[in-house]
Amino acid sequence: MKAWEITLEVRRAATDAIAAVQPPELHKFQRPRIAIGAGGTADLQLPGDGVSTPHCELLLDDSGGVRVADLGSRLGTLVNGRPLTEPAPISPDDEIGVPGYSIRLTRPARSLDAPGWQLTFEIERRGGERTTKVLRQDHVWIGRASACDISLPNSNVARRHCYVAVRPEGVAYVADSMSTNGTYLNGSRVGPATPLRVGDKIYVGDFLISLTRPPERIG
Hints:
Blueprint: E1 4-12, H1 17-20, E2 25-29, E3 33-37, E4 44-45, E5 56-60, E6 66-70, E7 78-79, E8 82-83, E9 88-90, E10 96-98, E11 101-105, E12 110-111, E13 116-125, E14 130-135, E15 139-143, E16 150-151, E17 162-166, E18 172-176, E19 184-185, E20 188-189, E21 194-195, E22 201-204, E23 207-211, E24 216-218
Parallel strand pairs: 3-4, 15-16
Antiparallel strand pairs: 1-2, 1-11, 1-12, 3-5, 5-6, 6-9, 7-8, 7-10, 10-11, 13-14, 13-23, 13-24, 15-17, 17-18, 18-21, 19-20, 19-22, 22-23
């Protein structure tokens, strides 16, 4: 079976003003089954009266697809606010609800067997300074959330606004993640999987992002 890595963003329920601004916890796993529960042998332990032991699990298939399944928990598992009655596929756009917690994939599963890629970006805020960011990965989330690879703290940027990814042959593309204000490439609104070239301008809220080098293979 192929080896995959997933990263989970875990947030506690905002029960007060302090909890509402606490940053999420990030947990990385490199295994085909991730057990979630209040303790015991759970890979991701979530203490709380409403969390069962075990509560639910994530299952990765050989193509990198991720499914979530409830394990007979007392209060149940939710996906996007709906009770989970059978194993269901999930993506970074989905929210898993466990009593007192919200769990999301930060990006699609990353293959540990395939060669990696390095992406170099220039980021400029309107009227501000330019910064350069180098990321050694083939899928880059851009958005307001602190867990995003490129975090843009502004109210007109969605939590997960868009992403840049690299196909196995080394071609980069940008895709919007159903953001309210949209993502624009060279002035045109981005749909799914729009090719991205060096020098193209990605507009996200008040920010301008450019790929300054072609994707570089590493490993």
